[in-house]
Write a structure and sequence with these properties.
The structure holds 2 protein chains of 2 kinds. The mean pLDDT of chain A is 91. Chain A is an all-beta fold. Chain A has no helices and 11 strands. In chain A, a hairpin with a 5-residue loop joins β4 and β5. Chain A starts with a strand and ends with a strand. Chain B has one domain: Immunoglobulin-like, CATH 2.60.40. Chain B contains no helices and 11 strands. In chain B, the strands form 2 sheets. In chain B, strands 2, 4, 5, 9, 10 and 11 form a 6-stranded mixed beta sheet that branches. Chain B starts with a strand and ends with a strand. The chains are: A mainly beta, B mainly beta.
Chain lengths: 116, 110
């Protein structure tokens, strides 16, 4: 079976500090990978998605970046955090190259980021 | 312009009081419509996928339906443990890109 991991679970960082959040998937190969941010009481905002190693699509211009150094690893980074970067960050995966059918996403447990 | 809209934002039900949650979408070319349940502080949990108008899926007290412009999540005789935020998402021409609604927060009172 497939499992998705995220760490850390919670993070408190000062404004201007760097950020690195990691997501890994087990039990599948060549997945699509996604980063979302969820503000309190709100829906999910798609930040980045990747259909393969080194292939990153950015959906929201901001001070965040993403990288996919390995097939099942997805990293979210920032060089300098802003107060507005606070939120709940979720990583998700789905089966790549399968078309529309059977491409539901599965989510990790999330990282709660507070920027002070 | 929001691609996916959910209503109501919040819903309070008595245990056993059936109701429906709505998810409407404004872009043509729907590829998939997805329902998730999210508990506080956790990642969304996948419930259903619907692909074509007229399709229905059921799981315990939940039933999801799809028309050409919207989807409904029907909750029959809900229990307090059904309390959660229910999210819907849709994919359109780019089936790798998911558009999420803002969710319906359901509270079922015993």
């Amino acid at each position: 079976s497939q499992t998705i991991h995220q760490w850390p679970a919670t993070l408190v960082q000062p404004v201007g500090s760097p950020l690195s959040l990691e997501c890994t998937v087990e039990g599948t190969s060549n997945p699509n990978l996604y980063w979302y941010r969820q503000a309190a009481g709100r829906g999910l905002q798609l930040l980045f998605y990747s259909v393969g190693i080194g292939q990153i699509s950015s959906e929201v211009p901001q001070n965040l970046s993403a990288s996919r150094p390995q097939d099942r690893q997805f990293i979210l980074s920032s060089k300098k955090l802003l107060l507005s970067d606070s939120g709940f960050y979720l990583c998700a995966w789905n089966r790549g190259a399968q078309g529309a059918v059977g491409n539901e996403q599965f989510f990790g447990p999330g990282t709660r980021l507070t920027v002070l | 312009e929001d691609q996916v809209t959910q209503s109501p934002e919040a819903l309070r039900l008595q245990e056993g009081e059936s109701s429906s949650l709505n998810c409407s979408y404004t872009v043509s070319g729907l590829r998939g419509l997805f329902w998730y349940r999210q508990d506080p502080g956790k990642g969304p949990e996948f419930l259903f996928t619907l692909y074509s108008a007229g399709e229905e899926k059921e799981k315990e007290r939940l039933k999801a339906t799809l028309t050409k412009k919207e989807s409904f999540l029907h909750i029959t005789a809900p229990k307090p443990e059904d309390s959660a935020t229910y999210l819907c998402a849709a994919t359109f021409y780019n089936f790798n890109k998911f558009y999420f609604g803002s969710g319906t927060k359901l509270n079922v009172k015993p």
